[in-house]
Amino acid sequence: MSQDTAAHPSAWAAIADHLHHLGTTAVFGLPGDDMAPLGALEHSDVRVVLCRDQRNAVFMATGYALAAGRPGVCVIGKGPAVTNALTGLLEARSAAVPLILIADGTRLDRVGTGAFQELDQLAAVRPYVKWAVRVDHAERLPGALEKAAALAVNGTPGPVYVELAEQIAGEPVPRTGAWRPAVPQRPAPDPAALAATTARIAAAERPLLLVGGGARHRNADRRIERFAERLGAGVFTTASGRGTVAEDHPLHCGVSGLYTVAPVDALWREADLVVALGSRLEETATFGWPEGADQLPVVQAVLGEESLVLDRPGSYVLADVAATVDGWAGLLDGHRPDGAWAERVRSVRAALAQRAADRAEEAGKRAPDGTVPVARVLAELERAVPAGRVLVQENGLQDMWSYFFPHYALGAGGGSVVPSEQTPLGFGAAAAVGVRLAEPAGRPVVAVVGDGAFHLFRAELPTVADAGAAVLYVVLDNGGYGWLQSNLDRVSGPDSRFAFTRPRPTGTDGLTSAYGLNHRRVTDPDRLPDALAAAWREVAAGTTSVVEVAVALADTPPGTTGAAGDFPERAEETEETEEAEA
């Protein structure tokens, strides 16, 4: 319905029409018992992915939103369905993802009576969303839907919540006027703030760019790389900003903070300015910055004031990242750095590539029989799957290897979807389904996940099959929750009566075959290339394939010696190594 005045036959019919207006191609969820949402969507052109768990449904919708750059939509029931979804909302809010969660609610005349599955859902949800509303009257639904969509995509994007009181589900919904557009408005930078920050950038002799998740979908024309070239600046990304810039660019130096290792960490000791684009300077992005780096000036460009970090010296611009970069570039026209810093960045980057190769070779020599070095897994994955792949990740002990550039480097046009600071277990495994349904049919989607995360997700294998979402799952199997085991070993030693990892049959083969999916298990490094190549052929033909790879708990990411609480413990660098890399 696009006429100026409309009367939708029911609330869910109005919602279905609004989703069509938004351009939504997939909805994820587990509706309430009355099935009214499915009745309204029965003959629509929107794909409905029926999940087994509400948390996974929100994860999938989050993956969809991150890949598509438009709102993900999730539909659920009430009571425990809402509390099950809270972890997903926490992740979506932390990742600044536009997401619309629509839930059933107790009918108005039963509120406060102990009705079936009654819960003060607004109170439960509000800490995790930008905006929450309960609609008790049918005529208020169109305005609530339009406001929800506008708030999800504007300012700092984030999740919103719309609760539909049970009594209006079947009522006709009047609407006056066509649906409003729900596109993000991109505020231009304030001229005075732009001029002041430009002067600061122009004065820097050794600048670095830090590209965060807020720059996602704002660099289609490679303006950020051109800006880096104008400054001669080294380019780092945060984990969530990965995929925004080309990783084969000679000024790109990898992921910042937790995932930065020698020799590129030296650049942070030498820099005199950081230009942070769409980053909240979260802990993982700044972890391990060298001593004194808290006094390193930072110029921030972020959309929302809540993303500002003001406990460091510097200045900021509250505006769209793309508009800000274009503004800086225009004001810096004619600016010519002396070139020494850019050459330093290139030389350190080259040394990093050699060091990565050496470490991968060392890891291969130390891998126990019956396991495959993670560095080998990543190398063979790059060979088996076309370069334009999107890598969807978890954040466990072994799967963190892929965060360390250049042990894994995004190919030409490659993408990346990672969990936020919250790192909920199973996010990447589920989000990959949403990513797959948001991306063009020919673009490869690969999920690299730990076995603990994958086993938490396995209940959704029938969902994967029913949705026709062809994903290549590479499961790094260290026998359980390797991060927790590594921390336990540090505290209690190898003889603890507790254990988070044990060798045991996974049972995944039977589950995948039951749903028409494919499965392989690899314990011999020499068999890995054929296994991945065959799995990719199956995925390219339209069927999900799971490759479980046995890995060793001690096969820790580069520059680390194992888990140390929330973060990996840094490996000590020897004077000899530092001199060789200088």
Structure, described:
The model is unreliable at 574-582 (pLDDT under 50). β2, α2 and β3 (47-50) form a beta-alpha-beta unit. The longest helix is centred in the middle third of the chain and has 27 residues, at 340-366. The chain folds into three domains: 5-176, 3-Layer(aba) Sandwich (Rossmann fold); 191-347, Rossmann fold, CATH 3.40.50.1220; 367-570, Thiamin diphosphate (ThDP)-binding fold, Pyr/PP domains (Rossmann fold, 3-Layer(aba) Sandwich). It starts with a strand and ends with a helix. It is 36% helix and 19% strand. It is an alpha/beta fold. Strands 3-2-4-5-7-6 form a six-stranded parallel sheet, with helices on both faces. Strands 11-10-9-12-13-14 form a six-stranded parallel sheet. Strands 16-15-17-18-20-19 form a six-stranded parallel sheet, sandwiched between helices.
Q: What's the CATH architecture name of the largest domain? A: 3-Layer(aba) Sandwich
What Rg is obtained from the alpha carbons, in whole angstroms?
Answer: 25 Å
Shape descriptor:
globular
Q: Identify low-pLDDT runs.
A: 574-582
Which sheet architecture does the biggest sheet show? 6 strands, parallel
Identify the strand order in the major beta sheet. Answer: 3-2-4-5-7-6
Our count of helices gives 20
Number of domains: 3
CATH superfamily of the largest domain: Thiamin diphosphate (ThDP)-binding fold, Pyr/PP domains
Distance between the termini: 66 Å
Strand content: 15-25%
What is the CATH fold-level name of the largest domain? Rossmann fold
In helices, the fraction of residues equals: 25-40%
